[in-house]
């Protein structure tokens, strides 16, 4: 097969849309299938149902090579490599829910001309189990490492590409590897189980780094150190590195929480108690709630207090609110009897039904108006540009700011008369 081999994409969410658009940009014909007709209709019109910088341009720019459909057969008729990008959310037990993956396999039937290329994050052992049941189907593990907010750039300039295959599927793995040749990235060719573990272990490690620096922050608050200085000093050590070393109000998103849980449960199911990950999860849950204590320190009871949440998305440059810290905070604040108004530049609509008791408003100033406290949850650049010392201060009932990302200019705020609470400083 040539490098221009046709591609099938099953599941057109964040990963699927980026995968489809980027392979089209690399010159491939792409057949992309989702089960949600509205999604397919809007993508066919060139409209993106998610906020992801640069993706819209790629989709409209490659429209003639991108074929969006709800029909699995159409994909199967045109492509042999089927990139599986369906969601694998957590179940109540914390294990990954593989029902969407199983649905795809059931629909594919017993084809011996196709290979499933698994981009969805799945438990270690998933590939082996599928191959045991469906001997005819090729199987390649090709985990995805893109970050929402910079997904297109991450796909096009990956730190590495992981391609895992066993036995008879090696020929499909060669074809998958060839697709990535134009990107010039290092390719890690390995077995399926190791490829699956690389993905889970990478996310678990990054989550561990965040929980670690959050604990350092909490101890720094007690001992008078400034965690930002600590992060800077640590991050310059190239064995450590500066990334994922910023203290904050905890990690969220559609990947870290579920993948850490999934690895922890997976270990537990095999009889191994992964103690470190248990702590990583617990630290993160407590971190999300620490803001409440910081507010109470200055306001006493929060009953009847007006609290503004700036930012709802789990990070800037995305409208993804899955497992976002804002959801926990809104729920806890409502539980304490506070009145919460929240604003996010793009994620407000998606959060409407998820922010317990909070009201989504149209602008940051609408949220701030008459507030007893502002909590910065997501570091959208525009929040730094607000007229803090003028308009914001004038509009607030009590000038209290909890800066959950150490993002604002503390000195400026304190000088203007704000009470400022950061993280770890
Ligand atoms: N979002 C990320 O940043 C990211 C990064 C790396 C890996 N991942 C992993 O990639 C996978 C997909 O994540 P996502 O964020 O893109 O999920 P998503 O929920 O945004 O998208 C999944 C899509 O699959 C569709 N789908 C479900 N069943 C289907 C079926 N039978 N046929 C066709 N489509 C179907 C859904 O309708 C949805 O549009 C997950 O396993 C996730 O852990 C996500």
Low-confidence sequence ranges:
none
Helix-strand makeup class: alpha/beta
Per DSSP, the total helix count is: 18
Evaluate the radius of gyration: 23 Å
Straight-line N-to-C gap: 57 Å
The best one-word shape is globular
Q: What order do the strands of the largest sheet run in, or round the barrel if closed?
A: 3-2-1-4-5-6
Overall mean confidence score, pLDDT: 96
Note the beta-strand portion: 5-15%
Helix content: 40-55%
Q: List the bound ligands.
A: nicotinamide-adenine-dinucleotide
**Largest beta-sheet characterization:** 6 strands, parallel
Number of strands: 14
Describe the fold and architecture.
Strand 1 (7-10), helix 1 (14-25) and strand 2 form a beta-alpha-beta unit. The protein has helices at residues 14-25, 37-44, 55-61, 72-78, 99-108, 126-133, 151-156, 170-180, 192-223, 227-235, 256-269, 275-299, 325-335, 348-351, 364-368, 381-384, 388-395, 410-415, and strands spanning 7-10, 30-33, 66-69, 81-84, 115-118, 138-141, 160-164, 186-190, 306-310, 339-343, 359-360, 373-376, 400-403, 419-421. The chain is of the alpha/beta class and 425 residues long. The protein starts with 6 loop residues before the first strand and ends with a strand. Helix 9 packs parallel to helix 12, helix 11 (256-269) packs across helix 12 (275-299) and helix 12 crosses helix 13. The protein contains 18 helices and 14 strands. The strands form three sheets. A six-stranded parallel β-sheet has the order 3-2-1-4-5-6, sandwiched between helices. The structure holds nicotinamide-adenine-dinucleotide. The site of nicotinamide-adenine-dinucleotide (NAD) has 27 residues, from helix 1 and helix 5.
